[in-house]
Amino acid sequence: MVPLGGDKGSLLALIIELLAVGLSGSQYSYEADSFFSMKGNKPRLGQLIITIDPGLPGKGIYRNRMLDLINTFASDAGVRLPGQRRFTVRQKAMKLGSQSMKRYCKKFRMVFKAVGIINKLIFKGE
Questions:
Q1: How far is residue 61's CA from residue 70's CA, in Å, rounded to a whole number?
Q2: Would you list the domain boundaries of the chain?
Q3: Which of 27, 83, 106, 115 could be stapled to 31 by a disulfide with Cβ–Cβ 3.0 to 4.6 Å?
Q4: Burial per residue of 11-50, b for 16 or more beta-carbon CB atoms within 10 angstroms, e otherwise
């Protein structure tokens, strides 16, 4: 196994393996053969689930620290945070309205009138 991230990735992989193997009694990665081959020993797998309550340090501390970190990342030129484009597009659509949504509303209104379900529909933004 070759971990990503160079030295830091190797150390993180080592920490995770030591925790998982130590607490579950499973095999180290070097002791397990390939999952894709029927030859060799059967890997004794173990599962380790770690749950962390972000509220433990105090009310809002975790949230505020994460916001500080994200804002620091976002202040650097050329940095794009995951989901950033989606939120920008959603905010623009909520403000200006979505052309496709207006087309769908118009089609729905025609269908509902044609089948006599409803005489008048009220759609937000129309």
A1: 14
A2: 1-50, 54-81, 90-126
A3: 27
A4: eebeeebeebbeeeebbeeeebeeeeeeeeeeeeeeeeee
Residue whose C-alpha is closest to residue 75's, from 83, 87, 67: 67
- Phi and psi of 94, rounded to 5°? -65, -35
CA trace torsion 55, 58, 59, 65 (10° rounding): -80
φ, ψ for residue 54 (rounded to 5)? -65, -10
Residue recorded with tokens 């933004």? 125
pLDDT (tens digit, 9 = 90+) per residue, 47-60?
888 888 888 888 88
Helices (H), the chain: 6-24, 61-75, 84-96, 99-115
List, for residues 95-120, the tens digit of each pLDDT value. 776 667 777 777 877 787 777 665 55
